[in-house]
Structures are given as structure tokens and as C-alpha cells.
Design brief:
The protein has a single domain, classed as B-lactam Antibiotic, Isopenicillin N Synthase, Chain (Jelly Rolls, Sandwich). 33% of the residues lie in helices and 21% in strands. It is built from 9 helices and 11 strands. A hairpin with a 5-residue loop joins strand 7 and strand 8. The longest helix is centred in the middle third of the chain and has 28 residues. It binds 2-oxoglutaric acid and fe (ii) ion. The site of 2-oxoglutaric acid has 11 residues, from strand 4, strand 6, strand 10 and strand 11. 2-oxoglutaric acid (AKG) binds next to strand 4, strand 6, strand 10 and strand 11.
């Protein structure tokens, strides 16, 4: 092993057929999803409802957003930790990002847009919501597949009622000659599940179980990377692990992406009893997802090896 090509993410089709629980295609897709999540913590979903036109429009909207003056963009603020503007960071000079709370709702996107464009920007709202709704829909299908495959489908409904979505829109500018290509440091997501969609500029890298880093390439306008966050790792008693990932910028074009993160806001995240037995003792105590985010947002906890294990791990 040791070559860059040894690792590759599974590419899984999400069509009307494969997302209908009455079909055989659903059961086959469930198996592919769980196998991929257990192996790499992520996979590429090809979601046919996400059309080339939607892809084009959402990235046109992101370009107009990021071209606003910095003093406007920094107005993106939130009472929730890590939900607001991030940028102008000396050790991450290529990176800039804003957060849209309640991202899958028209209201959430409008509230964000009204801060950026006080006179309104209906086209931005329309283009963003078209994407964020699909991303939330895809996340829900994947989560349902995971719950059903593990035989804990009865808990799925309460999950759906408790999940909320934060969409972080991101721009990574091209590095100047001689500048560091590291655009986003290695981390695991704090979400339950994440969905990532990019313009046609690659840069995302994933760390495999053997410690090797590999790039994600060959994505189409309908491709979304679905990735496990720390919360699903805890919930699944580590059957699924949240992968380390980072962004490295090669080439001379800016990369834009949307990372949509599900958070369980209305109830405690708790490992179902079905995941626990003598061979698999409980690894994580029940926890409040936003309080975990609060914990992670404290400077002294930002560089922990596994923030979730420090926060609510059970010592073995
Ligand atoms: O831009 C990307 O592809 C990934 C961004 C990311 O990992 C994050 O925002 O957590
Ligand atoms: Fe991430």
C-alpha cells in the first residue's frame, strides 16, 4: 500500500428508486451506505435531484456573497457557538466562511440574507434554499438508512423531530506563489452527519483508518459527500467513526463549498441499548449536542485528540 490511489470513497446513487423504502434497491443502498460509513466514515452520494442548473446557481450566489465587503460579512453572528463568520485568521489565510442557521428553511436563509443585503436578495435566497432543502432531505434519507440497517428504526422519528441544520458556506482562495497550500486544518466534524458540496475545484482530503491521507476527486455537479460527525460516532457506540479530514488547495482557482451539519437540538444524544453488550461496552455517556459544541468552542479544547471522548467518553 502507501500509494495515493489505494483508497477511494464509495460512490452511491440516490434516485427515486433507491430512496423508496418499498424497493429492493433501498435495501441494497442501505447496505452500501453502512459499509461505506463503517469503512471511511464517509462516501459520495450522487443525488439526481441536485441538477447541474441548481449547482451552477448556488455557486454563482456564493461568489456574489463572498465578494461583499468584509465589514458586511463579519455581521454574520449567532448566539450559538461557532455559527458565525470565520475568516482573516493568520494561520488560515486562504479560508473564509459564514454560517446559516435553520438552513433548510426559507426563514433561516432569509434571516441570513437580510443581514448581508438589507434591501433583500430574493435570487440568493431561492438558490440557497433549493440546495439546503435537498441537502437536508439527503441527510434524512441516509440517517433513516443507518437507523433501519442497525435495527433501531424505532428511534428514527424522534431523531427527525430533533435535528436542525447549520449550513456553512466556504471560500478557499487560491494560494499565492510560495504560500502554504493548507487551507483547512485536520479535524472531525462536531455534527451528527455532514453533507459537503463543492464547485469543480477539488481540495478535500480524508484520513483512512491506516493513517493515510487521500484526496476526493471526480465529483459531478450532483455529488455530495456525506460524512459522519462526532455525534453519530457516539450514538453508534463507535460502529461508525467520524473521519479526520482537511482541505489542501492546489492550482489557481478558488474553491467554494457548502457544508451542512445536522445537530440534535431538542433532545439528548443517547446510544440505543441495541449497540451495547458485553463485547461492546458503552463508550459515550448521553450528551447535549449544543453543549458539546460549546465545550469544543473553548480555546483550551480546540486541539484535543478527540473532543467527544474527552467530553462524554466512558473510560474503559
Ligand atoms: O470544504 C470542505 O470540503 C470541507 C469543509 C469542512 O470540513 C468543514 O467545514 O467542516
Ligand atoms: Fe469538516
Amino acid at each position: 500500500m502507501g500509494s495515493e490511489t489505494a483508497h477511494k470513497l464509495a460512490v452511491i446513487e440516490f434516485t427515486d428508486k433507491s430512496t423508496n423504502p418499498e424497493t429492493e434497491s433501498w435495501s441494497e443502498t442501505c447496505k452500501k451506505v453502512v459499509d461505506a460509513l463503517e469503512e471511511y466514515g464517509c462516501f459520495v452520494a450522487v443525488y439526481d435531484k441536485l441538477t447541474q442548473e441548481m449547482h451552477k446557481q448556488v455557486f454563482e450566489s456564493l461568489q456574489s456573497l463572498f465578494s461583499l465587503p468584509t465589514q458586511t460579512k463579519v455581521q454574520n453572528k449567532s448566539s450559538k457557538p461557532l455559527y458565525g463568520y470565520v475568516g482573516q485568521i493568520p494561520f488560515l489565510p486562504l479560508f473564509e466562511s459564514m454560517g446559516i442557521d435553520d438552513a433548510h428553511t426559507v426563514q433561516g436563509v432569509q434571516d441570513f440574507s437580510n443581514v448581508m443585503w438589507p434591501n433583500g436578495n430574493p435570487a440568493f435566497c431561492e438558490n440557497l434554499v433549493a440546495y439546503t432543502k435537498l441537502a437536508a432531505e439527503l441527510e434524512k434519507i441516509v440517517v433513516q438508512m443507518v437507523f433501519e440497517s442497525y435495527g433501531v428504526g424505532k428511534h428514527h422519528e424522534s431523531y427527525v423531530g430533533s435535528a436542525n441544520y447549520l449550513c456553512r458556506v466556504m471560500k478557499y482562495r487560491e494560494p499565492k506563489i510560495g504560500e502554504n497550500k493548507m487551507a483547512f486544518v485536520s479535524h472531525t466534524d462536531k455534527s451528527f452527519m455532514s453533507t459537503i458540496h463543492q464547485n469543480q475545484v477539488d481540495g478535500l482530503e480524508i484520513k483512512a483508518k491506516d493513517g493515510e491521507w487521500f484526496g476526493v476527486h471526480g465529483l459531478s455537479p450532483s455529488s455530495v459527500i456525506v460524512m459522519a460527525g462526532d455525534a453519530i460516532m457516539a450514538w453508534s457506540n463507535s460502529r461508525i467513526k467520524s473521519p479526520h479530514h482537511r482541505v489542501t488547495m492546489e492550482g489557481s482557482e478558488a474553491r467554494y463549498s457548502l457544508g451542512q451539519f445536522s445537530f440534535i437540538e431538542k433532545e439528548t444524544v443517547k446510544t440505543p441499548d441495541e449497540f451495547v453488550d458485553e463485547e461492546h461496552p458503552l463508550r459515550y455517556k448521553p450528551f447535549d449536542h449544543l453543549k458539546f459544541l460549546d465545550f469544543f468552542s473553548q480555546e483550551e479544547n480546540r486541539r484535543l485528540e478527540s473532543p467527544i471522548a474527552t467530553y462524554c467518553g466512558v473510560s474503559q
